[in-house]
């Protein structure tokens, strides 16, 4: 059991607030919160469960901010969110069946591809374009894949939702960000429910972080609404690259081992 004192809670509040601001704009807040939780002495399962709590609140906070500006099309958002929630729960239930080593090797490559896509293509614009998929196909074929991934592993899920919504539903930068936050909240809540049932959430830390994340997400969402694609695009590129580097920095990452083996190190 970790030693919970006011200094620790204050630190985690600040970390969550900063992470919440990043999450509201481009995702990737877990780069800050998960290592911070592990540094408290929590075991990995408790750290992940507690992180899901603050992450869900962060996403809900930014969703409310975007919704107040009328940026969410609820006829589209609700089916997507429902599918994401169910898939997030299913992913959490199946977490023990799929080796995280496979995902740890694959996800950095996907994140780098996303960074290149948003960095060099014209795929992220301020205005909507014609969708490539109908809503039912997107909600029940594409969303469950990302929601399941969010429940079973997690890093980069927001970036995956974003690229899917932009490229397949044709939404502009700000509207896509708003819908991404709702989908992210739903899959987080789905997987969080399992962590709660397992007793894997450290509530004093989680609730303080949730408060910080709520405030940070409000700030981040306002920045996103003010600056739009000018802020969202570069931050998406930076955070996608940062998540890829973070995953590859793990000495046990099989892709890292393969690269080092290729160069004889």
Number of E-type strands: 0
Number of helices: 11
The profile of the biggest β sheet is: none
Gyration radius, in Å: 18 Å
Strand content: under 5%
Mean pLDDT: 90
Low-confidence stretches: none
| Helix percentage range | over 70%
Give the helix/strand class. Answer: mainly alpha
Shape: globular
The number of domains is 1
The separation of the N and C termini measures 39 Å
Helix and strand element order: HHHHHHHHHHH
Fold blueprint:
Blueprint: H1 6-25, H2 30-39, H3 44-68, H4 74-93, H5 100-120, H6 135-152, H7 157-168, H8 173-197, H9 203-227, H10 229-248, H11 254-262
Helix pairs in contact: 1-2, 1-3, 1-9, 2-3, 3-8, 3-9, 4-6, 4-8, 5-10, 6-7, 6-8, 7-8
Please explain how this structure is put together.
With 265 residues, the chain is mostly helical. The model has no long low-confidence stretch (mean pLDDT 90). The protein has 11 helices and no strands. Helix 5 runs antiparallel to helix 10 and helix 6 crosses helix 8. It has one domain.
Which terms would index this structure?
single chain, 265 residues, mainly alpha, 0% strand, globular
Care to give the gist of this entry?
By secondary structure, the protein is an all-alpha fold.
